[in-house]
Amino acid sequence: MSDGFAQVLSFVIGVAFFFFYIVIAGSIFNNDVLGFPYIILTIYFFISIFTFPNVSLEAGGKTSGSEPLSSKYTLIFVYLVSPIWFLIKLIKNKGKE
User: Fold this and answer.
1) In whole angstroms, what is the distance from residue 83 CA to residue 52 CA?
2) Is 30 helix (H, G, I), strand (E, B) or coil?
3) Phi then psi dihedrals of residue 66, to 5 deg
4) What range does the domain containing 9 cover?
5) pLDDT tens digit string along 13-47?
6) What are phi and psi of 73, to 5 degrees?
7) How crowded is the C-beta side of 68, counted as CA atoms within 13 Å?
8) Is 2 left (phi over 0), alpha (psi -120 to 50) or beta?
9) Residue 26 to residue 20: CA distance in whole angstroms
10) Rounded to whole angstroms, how far apart are CA atoms 97 and 80?
11) Residue 69 has pLDDT above 60, yes or no
């Protein structure tokens, strides 16, 4: 699979995760996702949509030889931590220059 196709697929998965969050928080728990405490989480997950494709390729390479059970949840975990992971990668790359 080419990196471009994998990034587009990761972007689509990230949008699906964001939509899933909106449905869960908004409909099932009856919370306003644009209200105060939830707007922070909404912004974080919105940023995750754009950082997830870059980080998912690296995470997929690191977990390719692991157990099948843990690899099933890798996408969800990477989506949740992708802004932090991306920021750490950005700081490390800036330190190398």
Assistant:
1) 8
2) coil
3) -85, 180
4) 3-96
5) 999 999 999 999 888 888 888 988 889 999 999 99
6) -95, 5
7) 0
8) beta
9) 10
10) 28
11) no
Identify the pLDDT of residue 13.
92
- State if pTM tops 0.85: no
Six token digits for residue 30: 């009856």
The answer to whether 52 and 14 are in contact (CB under 8 A) is yes
Q: How many domains does the chain have?
A: 1
Q: Is 89's pLDDT higher than 60?
A: yes
Q: Which residue has the tokens 């995750």?
A: 48
